[in-house]
Design a protein that fits this description.
Helix content: 40-55%
Shape: elongated
Radius of gyration: 26 Å
Strand content: 15-25%
Order of helices and strands: HHHEEHEHEEHEHHEHEHEHEH
Length: about 300
């Protein structure tokens, strides 16, 4: 069956012209004549049966249809170029994986481990891109994503296959300086942590996560602490931002344990309470259920092995 795909040369001319809003500049970029670019655009408009550009005194402007078409095809042209460069550079023996990942997990857990993956599979190149929102696989933007969500969210993510990595165990942490400001005579336990009473705990300011406004209420209820203002306090979007605010004695933060190894080790953050909340979310690696890439299978298996060794 004949596919409804226009010639690649016409698409490249359209993309360059749309980016520069000029046939002249597009021709210079593509090492073509202006008239050749114009003919390619005309052929594409004939193929689509619609106008993509309006001519102006200073060049061209995209029509509404042209704007939408450029927005939709650009990721595929970029993906085609990446795939071509990838197979050329690896001679078919390896490849590149584009992994979407939530930001703090990327910087505090995944990146410090990746040198081991690179040593084990030098033929596989990992590209990381971060987002706090669900990742899309329909457009082949990502090969896989590491996502923090509830089992229900993952189960109802259409067209995907998920692999459980680890639960999100939340700890209440703060700077030792914050404890000393409020309780100058309070001594830490032998391991440097504290076990504040409910009466003491409610005197400390809370640091809130913007995307999870009820998380402190969940922790306080599970710890049997009646707090007068569980939704009060500075708000920050990312766990990494909460950690920085907490180290500067701005308040107590709730952060997953596996994202706190450095601060707990060097003493810049300490436990304000030994109580630990297993949050409603867990970390999963998710990918399209139609993807059988051997490169991706190696990455998923490596992730699982790293997690298992850290338990």
């Amino acid at each position: 069956m004949r596919r409804q795909i226009p010639p690649l040369q016409s698409l490249l001319c359209f993309s360059a012209s749309a980016r520069h809003l000029s046939y002249t500049h597009a021709a210079q970029e593509l090492f073509m004549s202006q008239s050749a670019v114009s003919r390619q655009i005309q052929q594409l408009e004939d193929f689509l049966h619609l106008r993509l550009f309006h001519r102006t005194r200073h060049g061209v402007e995209l029509t509404a249809a042209g704007q939408q078409y450029y927005k939709n095809i650009q990721p595929y042209l970029e993906g085609l170029e990446r795939a071509t460069l990838d197979v050329m550079s690896h001679k078919g023996l390896g490849g590149t994986l584009k992994i979407g990942v939530v930001p703090t997990f990327a910087t505090r857990w995944l990146l410090p481990q990746l040198h081991d993956f690179n040593a084990l599979y030098p033929e596989i190149i990992i590209h990381l891109e971060t987002s706090t929102k669900p990742f899309l696989f329909d457009d082949n933007i990502f090969d896989a994503a590491i996502y923090a969500g509830t089992p229900q969210q993952v189960q109802h993510w259409p067209g995907t296959q998920s692999h459980f990595l680890m639960p999100e165990d939340l700890l209440a942490v703060c700077s030792p300086a914050l404890i000393q400001q409020h309780f100058p005579n309070l001594e830490p336990k032998k391991n440097g942590s504290y076990d504040l009473s409910p009466e003491q705990f409610v005197q400390l300011p809370l640091l809130q996560q913007t995307t999870r406004p009820s998380i402190w209420q969940e922790w306080l209820q599970s710890a049997a602490i009646a707090h007068p203002n569980p939704y009060d306090g500075q708000r920050h979007e990312l766990f990494s931002m909460l950690a920085v605010a907490a180290t500067h004695a701005m308040g107590v933060a709730l952060i997953p344990q596996m994202l706190l190894e450095k601060e707990l080790s060097d003493g810049s953050l300490v436990l304000a309470s030994p109580h630990q909340l297993q949050g409603s979310r867990s970390y999963y690696v998710v990918h399209s259920d139609s993807d059988a890439s051997p490169l991706l299978a190696k990455f998923v298996q490596w992730l699982k092995s790293v997690v298992s060794t850290k338990r």
